[in-house]
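Problem 12. The chain below contains 298 residues. Write out its predicted structure in C-alpha cell notation.
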Amino acid sequence: MYQGSMVALVTPMHESGEIDDAALADLIEFHIAAGTDAIVAVGTTGESATLTVPEHAQTIKKVVDLCNKRVPVIAGTGANSTAEAIELTEHAVEVGADACLLVTPYYNKPSQEGLYQHFLAIAKAVDIPQILYNVPGRTALDMEVATSARLSRIDNIIGIKEAFGTVERIKALVAACVDDFMIVTGDDATAMESILAGAKGDISVTANVVPKAMHDMCKAALAGDRAKAEAIEARIGDLHVALFHESNPIPVKWALAEMGKIKPAMRLPLTPLADEYHQRVRAALEKSGAIALEAEPA
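Solution.
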C-alpha cells in the first residue's frame, strides 16, 4: 500500500527537447532527501503525451535505476490503446517498477463497460500492482464511482488516483470500493481535505517544488492532525492554484527553473509559461519558501 506525498515527477529536458539525465538524477535526490513517499515516472506531469514509446520506456528505467529501491517507483503506463498500455506495463515489470499508474483512455471515450474491460485486460495480462487514474479534465471522460468500485475487486488493481477534484468524489469512492483499496487524490487543491476524509495520500504536482512540505502536510492529515496540516497549507496553498495557470506541466517546469533545478524546456505543442503569469507563480514560490523573497528596492 502506498500513501503520503507521491510526486508526479516532471521530465527535465534540454532546450533541444532531449531528456536531461543529469537534472533527472538531481531531482530524484532532491525528493529522496525531502521524504517524498513515492515517485511517479512519466505520468501527465512527466509529459508522457510528447515522449515516444521508446523514450517513455527508457525514462521509466532511468527513474527505477536512479531510485535504486530507496523510494517506490510508480510507472505511468496508461494509453488509449489497451495493447500499448499492456506493452508499457510489461516493460515496467521488466525494469523493476514497484507499481503502475494507468490513466483512463483519452480521446476515444469508451463506455463504462469499455473502461472496465480495458483495465481488466491489463490486470489479467501483467502481474504488477496497478493503480487506476481518473482525470476527466484531461481525458474528456469520467470513470464513474460504480466502475471504480467494480474494478476495486480485481486483485492486482490496488487503488485509484482520483483527480475529479472534489472531496465528495473521494468520500463516495471510500464508501463504494473494497476496504483495502487505496484511494489517493490527484488534486492538490483538495488534497488535505481528501486525506482527512479517507484518502491515503496525494499524487502531487505541487510536490515537485515543495516536496518536504507536501510530505509533512500529508503525514499530518493521515494522522488526523488538522491544525498542523492547515498550518502547512497556509504556506503552500497558493502553489496549488499558481501551478495550474496554464496547462500542467508548463507552470511547474517554469517554477523548477526559477529554483535552479531544471531548464525551462518542454516539447511542442507545450510552450513556455506566458509572461503574465511569471509574477503570480514567483509570489507563490516565495510564500512557500521554495525560493527566497526578493529584496525590497532601496
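Discussion. The CA atoms of residues 195 and 221 lie 6 Å apart. Students who got a different answer should revisit the alignment rule from Section 12.3.
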